[in-house]
Amino acid sequence: MVTAIVGANWGDEGKGKITDMLGEESDIIVRFQGGSNAGHTIVNDYGKFALHILPSGVFYDHTTSIIGNGVALNIPDLFREINDIVKRGVPKPRILVSDRAQIVMPYHILFDQYEEERLGGKSFGSTKSGIAPFYSDKYAKIGVQVSELFDEDVLREKLESVCVQKNVLLENLYHKPALNPDEILETLREYRSQIEPYVCDVSSYLHAALKEGKRILLEGQLGSLKDPDHGIYPMVTSSSTLAAYGAVGAGIPPYEIKRIVTVVKAYSSAVGAGEFVSEIFGDEADELRKRGGDGGEFGATTGRPRRMGWFDAVASRYGCRIQGATEAALTVLDVLGYLDELPICVGYEIDGKVTRDFPTTARLKKAKPVYETLPGWKEDIRGITEYDKLPENCRKYIEFIEKELEVPIKMISNGPGRHEIIYR
Ligand code: GDP
User: Fold this and answer.
1) Annotated catalytic, 62?
2) Which atom number of ligand 1 is nearest to the Cα of residue 221?
3) How many Cα neighbours within 13 Å face the side chain of 157?
4) Residue 352 φ then ψ, to 5°
5) What angle do CA 349, 355, 359 make, to 5 degrees?
């Protein structure tokens, strides 16, 4: 049985918490895309953690955590994170890394920085973790697979060829120092000795696990609107954020993914540039940012203040549909208890016409939000564990959103902690 946990919005929906919770009833947790560019924040009995590359299952001793082939594997980040959690008292996690995962090279990070610098004010707002250059190289077929670390002749030849190409750009476009293949090879030797004990044929491992009836959790990063195909291109990430990609990025049959828990945030937030129809500004935004998440809406990786907005039903319904949501989890609802009223974006006005369908980017740029406003509940709902105990206006907000999403909301998160959840 495979469950996927994915985001319906721009990321930062609180997937980490839901994964941490569902991890309790899983045997294997798999990261299938992305790299250490985004982060999950998890609050559990060991403390508060920001994980960027490790699957959220690392806090349990009964789970195996897997880095799938679809991930952008940053080896120093992986070991930094393992050491960090172990130092803070978490038992050493069982981790497997796909032999088909590709490695984020030191020059990917440099190219990410140089390109953002070159673009100046027109930059993508990258986290500069090398993700776009990494996936570009992967699909240009000049990336380095974990398996290749173990064949030095192949590796050396590849690096020499890659450096010729990269150095033309470095010297002529970016005016930066050239790469030296010998130095890179030395770094890769270090990577090899670090990663060796963890390398595994993950697809084959998961095939056997499925046969044995093991419970597998696929953990997505970011959300639908950052998907390179279905999101707000080009202000997207470089690997698919969709549950469907879980099959590819883990190496399992698509029909095994039976449950797709799509995490929907009770208001909107986004990092980086890109269209954001229900965005709010000024004091209104500052207030929500300050109260949002757990200690404010600031990026888990970069610390950047997140852009804030009201709940966007158009984007979230689309986000759920494109994920194939079988259920939704509505998160950070507790944050909204201070508001007298809550606007919900129910339509986009584009060229004088109102639509409920999420458009392509060119039309999205022209969209103006159409709001419906619901009354607030003016109460702190943290600590409530039963749906019926929620204030009436709060239930009305949830039920309004559920109708808009066209997906059943089965979980409501009313606090950052693992047990702050209401099942429906
Ligand atoms: P992710 O990338 O989707 O896991 O999202 P993040 O971890 O970046 O953002 C979620 C933030 O909200 C984290 O700081 C969580 O601890 C916090 N959080 C998650 N669920 C809730 C909730 O229901 N209420 C509150 N107040 N905070 C939450």
Assistant:
1) no
2) 2
3) 5
4) 80, 0
5) 90
Whether the Cβ atoms of residue 249 and residue 71 lie closer than 8 Å to each other: yes
Strands 28-31 and 327-331: unpaired
Can you tell me the distance from the alpha carbon of 29 to that of 270, in angstroms, rounded to the nearest whole number? 26
CB 15 within 8 Å of CB 3: no
**pTM (global) more than 0.90:** yes
Residue 16 has which token pair?
């980490």
Contact (Cβ atoms closer than 8 angstroms) between residue 232 and residue 17: no
C-alpha 89: how far from chain center: 26
Q: What is the pLDDT of residue 300?
A: 65
Dig out the tokens for 97 from the structure. 């890394």
55, 86, 99, 211 from 96: Cα distances, Å: 11, 17, 9, 19
Report the pLDDT value the prediction gives residue 38, as an integer from 0 to 100.
Answer: 72
Instruction: Evaluate the omega torsion of the peptide bond into residue 91 and state whether it is cis, within 30 degrees of 0.
Output: no
Quote the ligand 1 centre to 369 CA distance (angstroms).
25
| Annotated catalytic residue within 20, 27, 40, 108 | 40
Task: Using the structure block, give the residue that is written with the tokens 């918490």.
Answer: 17
Closest to 31 (Cα-Cα) out of 106, 96, 112, 128 = 96
> What number does the ligand 1 atom closest to the CA of 56 have?
4
Whose Cα sits closest to atom 18 in ligand 1? 416
Minimal-distance CA residue to ligand 1 atom 10: 14
Report the nearest atom of ligand 1 relative to the CA of 12: 5
pLDDT score, position 301: 65
Per-residue model confidence (pLDDT) at position 21: 87
φ and ψ at residue 94, rounded to 5 degrees: -85, 115
Q: How many whole angstroms separate alpha carbon 281 and alpha carbon 26?
A: 41
Query: Which residues of the chain have a pLDDT value below 50?
Result: none
Catalytic residue check, 286: no
Distance CA 207, CA 66 (A): 14
Report which protein residue has its CA nearest ligand 1's atom 12.
293
Query: pLDDT at position 44, please?
Result: 82
